[in-house]
Amino acid sequence: MRLLVEIGLVVLAAIGVAGCVGLAPGPRQTRGRRARALVPPRPDQLLALERLTLSARTSAVHVHAYLRPVLVEIASRRLAAHGHNIERMSETTGRKLLGGRLWDIVRPGRPFPEDRHGPGVTAEELGAMLDVLERL
Amino acid sequence: MARVSQRRNSARCWTCSSGCERAVVSASLSTRTRGLLALGGAGLVGALAGGRPELALIAMPFLIFVGVGLALAREPRLEAEMELDRMRLLEGSDAMATVRLGNHGKGALQLELAPVRSRNLTLEPVGTVGIVLRADAPAELTFRARPQRWGAHAVGPLVVLARDPLGVMTWEGRLGQRLDLRAFPREQHLRELVAPLHTQPFLGTHVARVRGEGIEFADIRPFRAGDRVRHINWRATARRGGVPQVNERHPEHSSDVVLLLDTFEEARDRAGGTLDGAVRAAAALARAHLARRDRVALVDFGGTLHWLEPAFGTTQLYRIIDALLASDIAFSYAWRNVDSIPLRVLPPGALVLAISPLLDERSLAVITDLRRRGCDLTVIEVSPLDHVSPGESAEDAVAYRLWRLQREAMRARLQSLGIGVAVWDRGGNLGPALEGVNRFRRSARPALRA
ipTM, 2 decimals? Predict the structure, then answer.
């Protein structure tokens, strides 16, 4: 009889402990919204140009098809501010104003590159071209 | 699942206990109580399992303490009232939120409370505030609310955690109501505005190009039947051999101004974005033009399209500011053009001020389309360059320079169409940028009229 009472008490105590530790709901923490460490997205225009400078390294086709139109627009607007028209500019003047490398890319009537896998334009070369454009 | 339903069933009104849904409270054992129960239970188990009655003796005070605490704990009857000393303010300025708390229960309560707030609203004191609230002794707390950005903000309700004096039970719930706080954008005072090409036949402050009754002298011409005698210029008449000459004048008219707010895309950093600047510019321009008796309309042109038809006066200013507070960048792939804008929002001869970061092709297409339809158009470019820094790699740094040059070329292309472009940098003054546009418009007038 005493053994049964002791077993019953042990079971009851175990249920009590389990209820106290596991089943009783604790106070909820009133946490605010987590401060999200958001990196603001970059504008699509800039992302497109970042992809463009990367792809321009890879082949001459990328330079001709994607980089050239951007450089032509910039060069023509900056030259127009000084009274030059890139479409009617002689090669001598073009090379003098823009430098040989940039002129080779933006000159009117530039043919599609014969060697599709020819060398592209590295960031350093492009930076030098932009130096020329910024000085105009 | 059973626990969830139990909690829902135990949720009830904090004050009236009648089950209303706005203020609910959930009761639970405190962390301390759970610890004490665990200790007491462990002591009992140890005593029974090991046959050591002294362990039960040690555990007994814990259990008695919890039992007494539970017997004495009464559900709190709290009430809270929140009020703001102002509902409208300028961004960056302060409003005081006062919280009045009342305890209609029988015992004192330990309270931890914090008001719910909008993301761009800071509250002082920061975090949770702890007080002891005695029965029938109301307490008052004040919080300083400061909007960090223009827009519609909210303070409240209060998140309250209450404990009985022994800390055995906790009750958690929300008290009070949500209060709206509208922060108006901080505007610049503009001395000079873009002069419109065309005016409307309403009394205003712009000298019209047409001739009529006004103050500004225009020309001298021979007298015609119907001219008033008081308009005869007697000196000119004497010089021209007695043929009566009359003065002609330019009347003062108002104009129609349409503010076209580009909300397709923005550049943003942690301190703010181009939309913030655009809204401030739009509010300043609306106020300045309405003060000059112009009719002003607003078109929020982006992923969603909202508009306000042109109207005069202070009421229109508040309508515009309320509409600006609701403006936001709405991401959308939909291609919108000028045809999306209702015709009555773009009256003939209106001066359109497009406030844009010039980041989205759709807004550029609308701007060029409006100009090609003969609209008198000026672009106020909220420069995104201040909000974006160059990348770390060499390619990204070169791309950033290329982007800057490309934007200059884009600006030149717009100017070649006869569109004046005012570049507004962050922290700069809008007035000088508008002066530059007026200089451009004077030099490009033949092109603008074409």
Answer: 0.75
